[in-house]
Amino acid sequence: MRLLTISSIMTQKTNTVSRFEFIFMMSLLVAVDALSIDSILPALSAISTEFGVSKGNDRQYIVTSIFLGFALGVVVFGVASDSFGRKRPIYAGFGIFFIGTLVAIFATSFSMLLLGRVLQGFGAAGPQVIPTAITRDLYKGRGMAEVMSLIMMVFMLVPTVAPLLGQSIMLLTNWQGIFVMLILFGLFALTWLAIRLPETLPLNQRVPFSFKQTLSSIQEVLENRRAVLFTLTEGLTFGAVLAYLSTAQQVFQEHFQLGERFPLYFGALAVVMMFSAYVNSRVVEKLGMHWLVIRASLLLFVISGGYLTFILLSDSNVSFWSFMLYASVAYFCFGILFGNMHSLAMEELGHVAGVAASIIGSFSTLIAIVIAAFIGNYYNDSVTPIVLGFGILMLPIILITLYDHRQGSI
């Protein structure tokens, strides 16, 4: 199924949006959350110093706190998008995101900064999760997996440049300047959406809001075997990535002593993920989502075991370039996993896409926060906890995907 004009699904004439513009617009909306995370990474040390954060691993909360807000926000905005259309909840999300950003800018304590980050995450949940429902309005099956992979590919440009952008702002001003940039980026994305995208959920397809109906839709999602299984696998994969994100500044700037070169290598790994998302978009129609998830998770499991053995034999003293090689393979696998697992989770829930996207996003994020906090707490100026975590988390993904594949292939 190809998107020729969005107006073809509407009950009245609207402006048309090309498939190319649609992919870039959705990527920009989804990127609001990612930019809020990755652009602040070079400033973690400066923020910790300013607020007197003495314990090194506590700076990870600046990253993980935004995901706590996100996990709460996706439920609200996903449900709202099925009842009030896709666009209006996105507008509300941007409003809360802007408030949270202002709280962070004027924070007078570390706790107040974390509150601002939670509000940022809550608000960013709207533009983050609803594009999945919009895409599900227009696509299904492997066609959705292809489009989601292309959105992911463009979206991955953000972590490629975000740390470098944050580092550049730090050289010109202070860490508050990064939050000002986030407001400007959000305003641009919001304006583009408001002007160019027609509403993709017609009035006659909206679910009248009621707590009874919402609970019924949530129950339907939770009773769907495939949705539950791949929400779990998405949470495991996201947990691995979040553990890496929350410790990246410590690993690159402190363990490997890269200093201001950190954004360049962080961005290079994002390019690898972007490339793998493109590869996935080209082969998913032919090979299928299960086939790709099983191979990608198996590859990461095997290479993690091999690299962990290498670390132990080297007495934890491994070179930066060996880690970059390992991380490149890991990020290639993540690029394959994300689009396919999310599409599998959403596959049978198109009629409640907003609620489904919110429940899947919320539960997978909560799982990821717990996993990342656990792995991050064991960070000890060594990459061993990261590598071990990556490997262990892939094993249940392999088993779950094999089980679901036997129940019925897509």
Plain-language structure description:
This protein has 410 residues and is an all-alpha fold. The protein has one domain (17-198, 213-407): MFS general substrate transporter like domains (Growth Hormone, Chain: A, Up-down Bundle). Helices cover 78% and strands 0% of the residues. The longest helix has 31 residues, at 225-255. Residues 1-15 have low confidence and may be disordered.
Main beta-sheet annotation: none
Approximate strand percentage: under 5%
Estimate the helix proportion, in percent. Answer: over 70%
Shape: globular
Low-confidence stretches: 1-15
Q: Taking Cα atoms only, what radius of gyration do you get, to the nearest Å?
A: 20 Å
> Which class do the helix and strand fractions yield?
mainly alpha
Q: How many strands appear in the DSSP assignment?
A: 0
Mean pLDDT: 85
Task: Supply the CATH class.
Answer: Mainly Alpha
Tally of alpha and pi helices: 15
**What is the ordering of alpha helices and beta strands?**
HHHHHHHHHHHHHHH
Q: Count up the domains.
A: 1
Q: What's the oligomerization state? A: single chain
| Ends apart, CA distance between termini | 15 Å
Per CATH, which architecture? Answer: Up-down Bundle
CATH homologous superfamily caption: MFS general substrate transporter like domains
Stated plainly, the CATH topology is called Growth Hormone, Chain: A
Topology readout:
Blueprint: H1 19-38, H2 44-50, H3 61-84, H4 87-105, H5 110-138, H6 141-155, H7 157-172, H8 176-196, H9 211-222, H10 225-255, H11 262-287, H12 289-313, H13 320-346, H14 353-377, H15 384-407
